[in-house]
Hints:
By secondary structure, chain A is α/β, with parallel strands linked by helices. Chain A is built from 18 helices and 13 strands.
Amino acid sequence: MKYADEFRDKTIARGLARVxxxxxxxxxxxxxxEFCGGHTHAISRYGLEDMLPxxxxxxxxxxxxxxxxxxxxxxxxxxLAEQPEVTLCVYGDLMRVPGSQxxxxxxxxxxxxxxxxxxxxxxxxxxAEQAPNREVVFFAIGFETTTPPTAVMIRLAEKKWLKSFSVxxxxxxxxxxxxxxxxxxxxxxxxxxxxxGFLGPAHVSTIIGTEPYxxxxxxxxxxxxxxxxxxxxxxxxxxxxxxxxxxxRHEVENQYSRAVTRKGNRxxxxxxxxxxxxxxxxxxxxxxxxxxxxxxLKQAYAQFDAEMRFTMHEVRVxxxxxxxxxxxxxxxxxPVDCKLFGTVCTPxxxxxxxxxxxxxxxxxxxxxxxxxxxxxxxA
Amino acid sequence: MRAYQRKLDIKNGxxxxxxxxxxxxxxxxxxxxxxxxxxxxxxxxxxxxxxFDVGAGRMVMTTDGYVISPLFFPGGNIGSLAVHGTINxxxxxxxxxxxxxxxxxxxxxxxxxxxxxxxxxxxxxxxAAGVYIITGDTKVVERGKADSLFISTTGVGxxxxxxxxxxxxxxxxxxxxxxxSLGDHGTAIxxxxxxxxxxxxxxxxxxxxHDLVALMVAAGGSSIRVMRDPTRGGLAAMLNEIAHQSGxxxxxxxxxxxxxxxxxxxxxLLGLDPLHVANEGxxxxxxxxxxxxxxxxxxxxxxxxxxxxxxxxxxxxxxQFVQMSTSFGGGxxxxxxxxEQLPRIC
Lengths: 379, 346
């Protein structure tokens, strides 16, 4: 496959692996968090961990919007979809995410709620146009990458005079979550954060640029390298992180220079800031309440805000106390250290955020990498 | 004197409730459309059942329902699929398929023209395979009670003495052979989904595999431990199933697994793994190592097996993992698909 195979070349990978091996200091550990679920998925799918020296450890971060969506927001969506006049449009990977009491959108659909799986924001607009008598709601979710399409969708709905169309907004922000991983009240319970550097988001950074991470790198003294999603991108970025650690630097570097600039996509940023504003705080599954980490629609677009339109209320639900997602997301524990992992918590019946979608830390390990646990034990 | 009956208006007509009510209209639909398409001596007798002779050997029987959406796709339609799929389920036992039954659940308002196209391609697929559709059933349900058309087919075949293919016969060191490129059917269907449509030259691989199987059995006999066709859930689901049933693990080489570039590209775009995508004209055989090359050569000699490949082996593994060395140079598990990514593809 042209333009993809070039970034998956085995020979170049071996070369990079040799350089990483030669440059790492065998006396220390290198613990790097890849923030994005896309990175987690690529690491697992290509078996990238097998190419790295044993003292370079990848910690899978919370960068999967489906995983971090709290049960309370799913509950809100289910209650909304259960209203007879509502048609709820959602992305397919949200369907199985458990709310509280084990209910999901999939089970709500089985009980008669009108929930449609869509592949793009335009599908939802089409459904709204075809059913002017229904209250069509789009379940908007995602990081900075998917926010601009939602903004465009709202503009389109405005232009088309769609009177019974609205958006249930769950867009969240990457830098605030990285901040929370490094500094939040939770850390007092866990005691420490075992992260030496970050593999920064690829697609998110095409929108926001590399600039927003600079303050994080400075404040916490952690190197951040923005990396593409192809396996060679990631290996190169890991090498860049190793070098920064060795040299005692903590800068924001851009490996994904073929798509990411320092300032990002201004046009998309403007669209987003025209329509959305910061929430004071937003709940993340696994991280708890994170200040200034979520977006909502501005007052001027209140007619498109499902939370206003249907006076939706959020009732917080506590995460399962045995769930170790918080510690796993900070690199203090591994998925196998959690009592729930692979016992009551599996991709079929996920309990914690890390198991919810295939991009979550635990689900990726379960689906692609659990054979390594036994390999370790045997050795 | 015979009462006058207006001819079926195949071009513009539609199925209504009377076509399932047991009256003249139903008789007309059956004789005018289905008998015409399937034409054989058993159907012609018009009984509620068909009696047939079976040669020596044990009988094999299987049944399958087809609820695919859309009904028509590049490379076939629900009719040809319903014939191929059931023939393949019989053939995977190493058996020779002989007869099929077909049951139709039709939604009121379904076009006669579409029904005729579908019935004709069933007849054609059956004739090409040397198999007869000898009994059937037709039901019509009110609009909204079924999505256009569902077909169920049952297949009967005979198995030569001495053959008994089954998952628990797999042994450590057995080779895993696949008859050709993976993921064609599922990708072809997706490309025609209303909200997903994309342009591609990919066509479904839907085909009857019993001739290929006969060649393989002739070459390998009982050294073929088990055969399956990797339909829903793809190769991944099928090998995990065999791993559980045999108590073994599998180790695959990603580089050896045939996937067409167009399929790989479509899967890349949709975020799917070709190993999870359905096939309708491919088989996987677990074969004793000493006979694997002979069976592979037999496969390659048949047009439906010309891209056949040896993709890995059975290994001892208490955890029954299906593992794969990736073409990037690492390792990973090839797990079952969680949940349902693509509903109704067969």
